[in-house]
């Protein structure tokens, strides 16, 4: 089935036409580090063997290289399409439901068994994933080693680090997918991989008055990749982050304040290329309210009983996914925040960035 938007029209002109028919495939574009999440309940011996803490997030070192194969052989595993940006576009697609493939995703994987599984998982999530496949490095993986209520995450970026603009983004058939999009989202982690790819997409969005969104992603991005971050910042229409990332950003920019609303205002007022859109800054604070600069408002998160929280990993990605699902449908920013809070609330009740078959969001 194809979906069309009639130029110069709006959904209100078509009272009998379902809203999703107006929503185009490939309207949302994400680019980032694709990882195959490998989740398993493991024992203490497995953690000890690889020197893992029960509750931690680390990048794989040489001593962890064998563990990804071993976890598959020794334990019952579940696979999920993961990585920050891919999680967000996956959640956005889940919130939208129909049509399928509203969300496009670009990233680099290996020509291997894990790459094959990742492609299947992206397809199951109805995301239109177009991976750059290469043979030098294996597909990136993230092992989630579960013991009781704890999760030890070990990420091996591998192929995710090998994305090449000239070998993928610049290809005509791929660039056409970029041009189809109205909303773009990239997590800050990708600044460590391909700044030139981000800039090409960001400039296209700015020049065509489309919406470009960036996530600060982690304090180390603000600290060690601040030059790359500031090259992209003039093109950013919506900036996402959490309270620790906001504090790191403020410190690196020399903002003399620790107040999250003040940091948001200062980030909003940084130089911007596309003057037709005012930058919006959205900072989440866990169970505290979410701050948004549109007159600077704080929105309370949904209440949840502590006993219902299974896993907070991926809550930030899920918030962004919910937000994007409404943004791409031209809903109000308030509605975007509501959807973000709803998605995050669902994801923290499940292990990993997983969700029930359908959302219950109105």
UniProtKB/TrEMBL annotation:
Its EC number is 2.7.1.20. GO terms for cellular component: cytosol; nucleus. The keyword Transferase applies. Residues 46-356 form the Carbohydrate kinase PfkB domain. InterPro entries: Adenokinase, Carboh/pur_kinase_PfkB_CS, PfkB_dom, Ribokinase-like. Pathway: Purine metabolism; AMP biosynthesis via salvage pathway; AMP from adenosine: step 1/1. GO terms for molecular function: adenosine kinase activity; ATP binding. This is Adenosine kinase. It comes from Sinocyclocheilus rhinocerous. The lineage of its organism: Eukaryota, Metazoa, Chordata, Craniata, Vertebrata.
């Amino acid at each position: 089935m194809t979906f069309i938007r009639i130029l110069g029209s709006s959904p209100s002109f078509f009272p009998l036409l379902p809203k999703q028919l107006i929503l185009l495939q490939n309207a949302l574009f994400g680019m980032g580090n694709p990882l195959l999440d490998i989740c398993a309940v493991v024992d203490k011996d497995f953690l000890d063997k690889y020197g893992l803490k029960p509750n931690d997030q680390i990048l794989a070192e040489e001593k962890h290289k064998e563990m990804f194969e071993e976890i598959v052989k020794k334990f019952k595993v579940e696979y999920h399409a993961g990585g920050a940006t891919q999680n967000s576009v996956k959640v956005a697609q889940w919130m939208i439901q129909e049509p399928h493939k509203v969300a496009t995703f670009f990233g680099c994987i290996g020509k291997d068994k894990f790459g094959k599984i990742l492609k299947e998982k992206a397809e199951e999530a109805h995301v239109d994933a177009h991976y750059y496949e290469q043979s030098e490095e294996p597909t990136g993986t993230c092992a989630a080693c579960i013991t009781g209520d704890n999760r030890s995450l070990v990420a091996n970026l591998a192929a995710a680090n090998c994305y090449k603009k000239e070998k993928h983004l610049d290809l005509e058939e791929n660039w056409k997918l970029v041009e189809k999009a109205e909303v773009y989202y990239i997590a800050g982690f990708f600044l460590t991989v391909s700044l030139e790819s981000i800039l090409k997409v960001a400039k296209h969005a700015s020049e065509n008055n489309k919406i470009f969104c960036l996530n600060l992603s982690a304090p180390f991005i603000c600290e060690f990749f601040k030059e790359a971050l500031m090259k992209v910042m003039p093109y950013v229409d919506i900036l996402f982050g959490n309270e620790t990332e906001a504090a790191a950003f403020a410190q690196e920019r020399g903002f003399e304040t620790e107040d999250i609303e003040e940091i948001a205002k200062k980030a909003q007022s940084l130089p911007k290329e596309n003057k037709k859109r005012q930058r919006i800054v959205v900072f989440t604070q866990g169970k505290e309210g979410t701050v948004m600069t549109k007159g600077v408002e704080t929105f309370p998160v949904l209440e949840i009983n502590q006993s219902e929280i299974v896993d907070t990993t991926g809550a930030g990605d899920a918030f962004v996914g919910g937000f994007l699902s409404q943004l791409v449908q031209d809903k109000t920013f308030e509605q975007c925040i509501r959807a973000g809070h709803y998605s995050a609330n669902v994801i923290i009740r499940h292990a990993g960035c997983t969700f029930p078959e359908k959302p219950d969001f109105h």
